[in-house]
Every structure is written in C-alpha cells, then in structure tokens.
Amino acid sequence: MGNGNKLRNRRNELGLTLEQVGDMCGVSKTTVRKWETGAISNMRRDKVVQLAKALKVDISFILDEYVKEHPPTGVRIPVYGEVAAGTPIEAITDIVDYEEITESMARRGNYIALKIRGDSMEPRIYKGDIVIVRLQDNVETGELAIVTVNEESATCKKIKHVPGGIMLLSFNPDYDPQFFSNKQIEELPVKILGRVVENRSKY
Questions:
Q1: Is the pTM of this model over 0.70?
Q2: Closest by alpha carbon to 24, among 2, 46, 9?
Q3: What's the pLDDT tens digit per position in 125-174?
Q4: Which of 139, 135, 136, 148 is nearest to 178 (CA)?
Q5: Active site residues
Q6: Residue 80's CB: how many other CB atoms inside 10 A?
Q7: Could you say which of 3, 66, 111, 153 has the lowest number of CB atoms within 10 Å?
Q8: How far apart are CA 128 and CA 46, in angstroms?
Q9: Average pLDDT in the 11-21 region?
C-alpha cells in the first residue's frame, strides 16, 4: 500500500526505529509495522494523531493519503479538540481529526465535529467521544447542544427551555443543573453554537 511506504520513508528520514515510534504512540513495534504494511484502515483515530506527532507531520499527511486510496462516500468535516467562545468556526485551528457525514446530511446544514473532553454527559456520551454538530443558534427542549457560557470553551449539554430562562442539564448525576435567566443569557452571554445530531464512540 502506497501509504505504508510513505510512513516508512518518513520514519527512516527521521532515523527512528519501529520500537521508537511504537513507544511514542503507546503501541508495539509490530503494530507500527502493520501500519506501514497496509493496516492503516484499522488505525484508531487517536493513534493517527500520535503517529503524526511522532513523525513530525500534520495528520493530513496520513489521512489524506488514506483518503486517496479509499475515496470517501460522503463529506469530510473537521473534528475540533476545543471550540473557544467568540472565535468564528472557520478561524479555529485546533483540528485534531476528520469525520465523514453523508452528502444528504451535508445538504441540510453546516456541520462540525467536536471531541468531548469532560465526563458531564456520561454514561450516554463519554470523554473522547466525537459528536457531530449542526451549526445553529437555537434548539428545542430535550435536544443536545454545544453551548458556551461566560466566554468559556464550548461544552455539551441537554437543553431545557423554562419560563424566564434556560437550563443546561448533564446526564452525569454528579453535575447539578444550571439555570440561566434571560438577562444572564444576554449579559454573560450564554450562546448555543449548534445541535448535537450524532455521537460516535471511540475505542
């Protein structure tokens, strides 16, 4: 497989052994050899990121080559490691991976993906999971949304519209519901960035 040669050549350029790359990625040299001999289609997403770091390349060095040999059947969207409040989506550079959505889904709106960082939505959504998000500034009660509060980084919460304001709910019982009045929504502010339409667990 062409990509394997590319990976091996890059490793040799850096003077790295299979063992050294494996140590950097937390895998055995046998696994690294498999990546280099055509098993990249089975590589975990987080390992793609670690391998790119070990080889001192962008993740597109690995992913784009794979896409050339396995043309996507849908539309690729970026996975952000973090979405900072107040930063336009197109200006965010913290792209850690890419996910694929269907063409029919892509025609229904603009989408991004976000890697979940905390445990507030367990046991339904776990840390490290990827959520697919349709960008929109409002959602219905009971829907999951990506929200920013007081200019902090975005978080995933279940939305409940109540008289005089909004409640942000976690699935994890260790986290109390958060209520924000309409005044707080304006002044903090509390902003909905999009609706979570799909969760993709990573193992």
A1: no
A2: 46
A3: 998 899 999 999 999 999 999 998 887 878 899 999 999 999 999 999 99
A4: 148
A5: 120, 157
A6: 22
A7: 153
A8: 9
A9: 93
